[in-house]
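Readers of this paper often ask what the protein records in our data store actually look like. Such a record has a labelled line for the sequence and another for the backbone structure tokens. Nothing more is needed to write down the fold, since each code stands for a local backbone conformation. The remainder of this section carries one protein's record, kept here as part of the documentation.
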Amino acid sequence: FFKRSKRFIMTHDTDQIRKLKNTVKLAGALAELGELKSGEKDGIKWISFDGVIQCGETSVSNVRFRTFSREVTSQGKESKAYKNALSWYNSAVSLVKCGGDMSKVTMVELVGSLQDNMYWSTKTNKVVEDVMFSMGLFNKFTDYAANITLEGYVCVLGDEVSKKTDEPTGRQRMAILSRDSYGNNIKFDRIVVPNTEVVEGGCPNMVQAFSDYDLERGSTAMFYVDLIPHIGESAPSRGVGICHDTPKSYIERVLIGFDNTGYEDEDKKIPDALAKKMLSERDAKRAQIEADAESGGHTPAVGVSSSKKPSGVGKITPTEEDDLDDMPFQRQS
């Protein structure tokens, strides 16, 4: 259940951090597909689009994604990913397009990574900090999936408290500090550490496993997170990826496994001083976004084309279209 991770070297210069493992897999039916956007920068064509994957039997499992691809790679070679993404887009059939007919909808497995998504919301007039699912590979569908593998530093860990009773639920909540493929520091938060088995054959008590394996705030490890629908209770105001089919259904980010093998070694562990610097860089980025907004320098980012409010993960509260228009879509220069 606990996997062995690869070796990497950390320094106290955040610009020299080696790439940390950061992989997302979403597999299921294409629920929605946004408008294809295209352009050209420095003589290189690019395309982008967003969509929603139903990663289970019902729309409670809907997860929103975005794709960006360039015709030429950074090495100057023709990009197969660009061709594949464009070909897939042109042939894809969403549930919206086929009227919900599962025999006609496109089934797909997407592979990508978490990307930083810090932006100024003109709706709430504040900085929103989160991640987006940036997907680049379109593979043959084999089975439903919605999972993340993320290597990083535990920057938040504490007991989960019920909003109704103000009493601990027995579960914990955590956040992982890591990096995205653009070199941005990301904070993947609101992760549930369960105290009961959540996947068949999985850990019977992840909270206890943290204690048994000496996982705590400040630890470095490889973490495995599933996006799991939660049905039955009123959705909390800070619920993740609230689904709009019913106010009682939403998706939780649930930790299902970890590997801290060898991460106590200095050449594998992210030192506290480095983590502090990474968090300071996020603070500086947040302050710059706030300053730009106050000075009127905020530039609306590429919006999401959809006639519906998104039902994917990644928003603190149900997302309105105004917020989507503010989301930055980072592109490689």
Observations:
- Residues 1-12, 237-246, 299-333 have pLDDT under 50 and may be disordered.
- The helical segments are 80-91, 206-212, 272-294, 321-326.
